[in-house]
Each structure stands twice: as C-alpha cells, then as structure tokens.
C-alpha cells in the first residue's frame, strides 16, 4: 500500500481539530449499528430464533437475559485486547479500520442466519469488532488535542457522547419497528441488516477522515516500559478502583435491554397516543441524553459551580444515588403488576429520567476523566480498562440471574424484590465511592503538540 505522511502530534490551535467531524460521524453510524442490534437482541432470542430446519427454537426469558448480559460483558472485555493491538503494534487508526471490517461481517451473519449457530458467530464477530475498536475510538478523540486547546476536551467528549445517542435514538426507534413490520420470515433479516449497512457507512466515514487525524504512533516497547513503570502502575491502580465502583451502575443500566424490555411486554403499551413496542421504549434514554447533555454542560454545571466546585468524582458520586431512584420506580411498577394491575409504560419512561441523569453524570465523566488521567502512551489501554467496568457489571447481572433461577422455573428474587436488590447495591456503592473520592489525587496527561511551523510529522503510515 502507498505510504502517506500523517501528522503524529496535535497542532497548536485554539479551536476544534479538523478530524473531529469525521470521528463523530463515524461514531453516530457505528452506534446506530450497535444499539439497533442490541435493542432487538432479547426479543429475537425469545421470539424468532430457529433451528437448522427453520422451526422455532427460542430461549426462555431467563436464558435470554443471561446470554444478553454475557454478550455485553464480552463486548466490554475485548477492548482490553484491542487496546494492546493499538498501543503496542498497529496504532489506533489501523486497529479501528481492520476490526471494523469484522464488525460488518458479524452484523450480516445475524441478518442472514437466524439459528443459534448464526447468532453465536455473528455475536462473536461483533464482540471482537465492536469491543476491539471502543478504546481506540474514544482515545483517538483525545489525541486530536494538545495543550493549547485541551480546555475543549470536556466539551468534545460531551458532543462525542451526543453523537453516540443520535445514532442510538434513531436505531432504537427503527429496528424494533422493522422487526415487527416484516414479520417472522423477513423481520430479523431487515432489522439486523440495516445496522449492518450503517456499520459499513461508519467504516467508510472514518476512512475518509484519515488525512485529517493526528495519528499518534503505537508505543511499542515504550508502551510496555511506561505501563510497568511506577507511574504507569500507579495510574492503573488508582483508576481501577474507580472502575470497580462504576461497575454496579452498568449492572443496572444495561438491564434496560433485558429485564426492562421483558417488563414492558406486560405493561399497557398505549402511551401518548401511540402503541409502543417493548423494545422501542429504550429510545427514551437516548432522546433524554440529547436533551440533558447541553442542559448539564451549559446550565447545571455552571450554575452549581457558583456554589460548590464541580469535579469529575463529585459528578460520579451524585450519579449513583440518582440512578438508584430509577430502579426504585421500576420496582414499584413490578409491585403494581403483582397486584393484577396493568400500569402504563409511561412509568418506565419516567424511570428513564433519573437513569439518564445518572448516565450523564457517570458515563460521560468517566470518558473524559479516564483520558486525562492516562499516561501518554497508555491512552487506549486505560480506556479499555474503563470499559471493563461494563464487563464486570454485566457479569454480575448475568451471575445474579443464573443464581436466582430455581430448578422448577421460579426465582429466588421474584417480582419487585429483584429490582429492590439492585437498588440496594447501587445505593451502597454511592456511599462507599463518596468516601473513596475524598482521597483521590488527580494528575492530568495531555499529548505534546507539534511545532507551530510543522505541517506533517516525519513518521509514515499505511493508507
């Protein structure tokens, strides 16, 4: 392949870097793909899964919830492998391009093979592709900034997260509709196929911006030396404790794609003049994110900052307690169901408000905080460890669901008690994290800039 000179360090500019629109455009399309597939996965497993002869061979609700969370756990574990591939050998750009191709293939396996084998192969490829690129994409955002414009990092990570939810809000509204509209015969093909097409588009958009990006070279042996230095070990250790605390948030948040969807099937789905599909209710989360990001960035944070210093760890602490309110509402809804009542799905919509506020306070903050606290050669690696908190959270949920199932099909945590259990977990987490946060000492690392008169770095990379 032809060799092209790429910039390997940020330019000393005060505004937004030139590559940011391509990165965010890629993220919008990729998140459309992932969240569209994720939105219908549980429903697909309990309604549409077939055997080799085309006869229905669906999973039980308990198995579907368990496998859903195992899948998410795997998606957020493979970033660890992707980060090593990037930081040691290929660099972020080539890692993203190569693994995105596997990601595309995985989507089309789901679209055209509706057996358990097709499900397994498709999800494994998505685990490798989607998971592998995650730490590289988010750290690639930060790599575009130097000391001159690093003050824009908080804003760009907010808009990066905004892009994530533009993609997810569109896909979570569309893919459940396509699955239902085209029926058992063609629904899965169309509903999984559209996210596959969007992933192809995401890969193309990212490739288009290749000459606009800063391509920070792979660290090679330098990565290994820094990681195992006193500085690297200390950074990993301090951040790892934070991620252990964050894991319970993901244990409850990702249940919007499993237990919340299964609960929605039992609710009155006529709300606001529309008949909602159970999997479509998840769109409310992404829609609220689009509203709450600017509200918090330009309203809440500056206003609260006049009274008390707004720090990343304080945001995360508050996020835990607000998230607990969401699951308390869902527990109350489950109690109403146990009384023979049929509550409106609007109650789930209401629960999404505190859950999404918790997401804005915890997830976005963790992205920015992880990047700034990571030593320069370890950016993707640290972002991968941050994503491991999602893995741990989903493993916890999967194990809870496995443990509480009795042999006769009943559960040790029946009805609302299941949700109250998670309310207690996240509340205790908030208390303990608040204590830990008081003793954490921050240290910021930002990429060095290129000289002002230097248009290209001397290093070369493959197109």
Whole-number mean pLDDT: 90
Flag low-confidence runs: 454-463
**What radius of gyration results from the CA coordinates?**
22 Å
Q: How do the strands line up in the largest sheet?
A: 1-4
The CATH superfamily appears as MFS general substrate transporter like domains
CATH class identity: Mainly Alpha
Q: What is the molecular shape?
A: globular
Order of helices and strands: EHHHHHHHHHEEHHHHHE
What's the structural domain tally?
1
What profile does the largest beta sheet have?
A: 2 strands, antiparallel
Strand content: under 5%
**Helix-residue proportion:** 55-70%
Total number of strands: 4
CATH architecture: Up-down Bundle
Distance between the termini: 7 Å
Helix vs. strand class: mainly alpha
Q: Which fold name is given in CATH as the topology?
A: Growth Hormone, Chain: A
| Count of alpha and pi helical runs | 14
Structural overview:
The chain is mainly α. The protein has one domain: Up-down Bundle (Growth Hormone, Chain: A). 70% of the residues lie in helices and 2% in strands. The chain has a two-stranded antiparallel sheet. It has a two-stranded antiparallel sheet with strand order 2-3. A hairpin with a 2-residue loop joins strand 2 and strand 3. It is globular.
Question: What keywords describe this structure?
Answer:
two-stranded antiparallel ribbon; mainly alpha; Growth Hormone, Chain: A; single chain; 463 residues
